[in-house]
Amino acid sequence: MVELQAATKLDAVFHALGDATRRHMLRDLAGGERSVGELAAPFEISLAAASKHIKALERAGLVRRTVAGRKHLCRLEARPLEGAHEWLGFYKQFWSGRLDILESLLRQEDAAKSQGEDHD
């Protein structure tokens, strides 16, 4: 059951990160708290559309929204990104290993060519 909950949270994080507008909003929030209007400003979207994006970020646990009067303030909650980072880390190791093998093969090929030229 714990693994299912973790997978569901990870799915929500990747869903949230799957949209360029939301990624841009997260990047803005890394600089500090922003209002919904401030988050919407760089885009040609309504406040209602911006709020929908923010709700997706909230569902993923990436954003915490507080209300101060009529102003909705958002701040970054980076902890859920740790799970995504760990998941992607596996593939970093995978590709690093593959690239190390490729580098070795290319060095062997270069060495073989050098030896062939020396004998000409």
Automatic annotation (TrEMBL):
> InterPro entries from the xrefs?
ArsR-like_HTH, HTH_ArsR_DNA-bd_dom, WH-like_DNA-bd_sf, WH_DNA-bd_sf
Specify the HTH arsR-type domain's residue ranges. 2-96
One term of GO molecular function? DNA-binding transcription factor activity
Taxonomically, the superkingdom here is Bacteria
UniProt-listed Pfam families: HTH_20
Q: Which NCBIfam families match?
A: HTH_metalloreg
Designated name of the protein: Transcriptional regulator
* Organism this protein belongs to: Phenylobacterium hankyongense
